[in-house]
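User: Show me a protein chain along with its predicted structure.
Assistant: Here is one chain, sequence first, then structure tokens.
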Amino acid sequence: MNERDWHILLTVFETRSVTGAAEKLFTSQPALSYRLKRLEERFDVRLFERDGRKLNFTQEGEHLVDHARRMLREDLRMREELTRMQQHPHGEIRLGVSSNYAAYRLPPLLAAFQARHGGASFSLTSGLSHELFVQLQHEEIHLALVRDSFNWKERKFVVDEDPFYVFSREAINFDDLPRLPQIALDTSTFQNRLVADWWNARFSEPPRVAMSVDKIEACMAMVRHGLGYTIVSSIALQETDRLFRYPIVQADGQQLTNKTWLLYRKQSERLPLVEKLIDMLKRRMA
């Protein structure tokens, strides 16, 4: 049985005439009579008795008419719900986000997204980029916002770029850096490699590491108190900071930046909310 059969049954009941129902449904009388006969065979009942030109529905026939009304109402309700789901989709988005991006950039993005898509909920894992990449490989998350592309073969693009600076409470001379106390940020291997490559191209001496911390906020706090300089991206810089900052310029004249990549599988685009979040992140770099 299908929606067409329920429409036929209701129309015949309303018109009490096979001929009238056929005209209303823009079909032939023989075709309509065939569908009605199939209905009777399907349920092993007689739908109506003929009284001249008028059809009198049997008790079983009227029961099927009531059922047809319910089925058509349910079908309409389901169509409306599916339409609303497409316009206002619901669901959970599983995100893996590097710690600093989760702390400093992600909250306003998710708040703005949820304000537009109230049906969205988030399962968020923050941590080191290489660990999050493993989760993406094992399909434990839909999207990874990480500090390296990892030569990912599926979908990927840059969503943010933060320039690297030397931050210090006091004015300094670049040539003096190897002899000044450095507050080293010991987190992302990828970020450390970027800074180390720049340092080795600029100096023949190693940095004088006075402290090594694993949180960028701790690193910046040490610098604010004059305990040394640091080389980090600008992601943790606060508006109230009164620090000297010196851009890290590479040999080709380009400023060294820390890129945040969005990595995901093509199949994730089939999920309406995930697709909308991907589109929002793409527009950030447009």
